[in-house]
């Protein structure tokens, strides 16, 4: 029985491979999206068609399509890096703020229910909360700096 199922499976693979069309697209017709990113309204996507790279950058509903050349290659790369860094800082800000809220709620519950337990571990929880708050504030300031860089690069590229 196992040999029968195995032979049917191999026969099916042979039929599918024999029926497939061997014609492939020419390289002139292919265009691939290489990279893309989005954060807080700023977006980019890089598409390669033959030997040229076209960039679609945007902020909210305003989109621009640019072809990469020697003049704008460095600014486009900086824009892409800034979008990716802003995304990472945004995630860090959300996670650290959520962690701080979890610790604050935990301390509130311990304060209401078991004050004796809060006396033993309250200092540790307060230190963890302070560290989470510090990381969140630092991520906020880093994110605001990166957003300013994004605005600068976007204005350079769209003018």
Automatic annotation (TrEMBL):
Signal peptide start and end residues: 1-18
Domain of life: Bacteria
Alphabetic keyword roster: Membrane, Signal, Transmembrane, Transmembrane helix
Spans traversing the lipid bilayer: 90-111, 123-141
UniProt-recorded name of the protein: Uncharacterized protein
UniProt organism field: Sporosarcina aquimarina
């Amino acid at each position: 029985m196992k040999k029968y199922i195995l032979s049917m499976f191999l026969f099916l693979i042979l039929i599918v491979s024999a029926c497939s069309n061997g014609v492939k697209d020419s390289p002139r017709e292919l265009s691939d999206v290489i990279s893309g990113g989005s954060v807080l309204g700023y977006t980019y996507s890089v598409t390669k068609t033959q030997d040229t790279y076209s960039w679609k950058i945007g902020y909210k509903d305003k989109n621009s399509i640019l072809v990469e050349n020697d003049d704008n290659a460095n600014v486009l790369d900086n824009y892409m890096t800034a979008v990716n860094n802003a995304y990472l800082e945004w995630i860090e800000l959300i996670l650290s703020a959520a962690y701080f809220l979890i610790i604050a709620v935990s301390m509130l519950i311990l304060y209401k229910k078991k004050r004796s337990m809060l006396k033993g571990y309250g200092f540790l929880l307060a230190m963890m909360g302070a560290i989470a708050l510090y990381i969140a504030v630092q991520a906020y300031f880093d994110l605001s700096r990166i957003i300013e860089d994004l605005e600068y690069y976007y204005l350079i590229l769209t003018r």
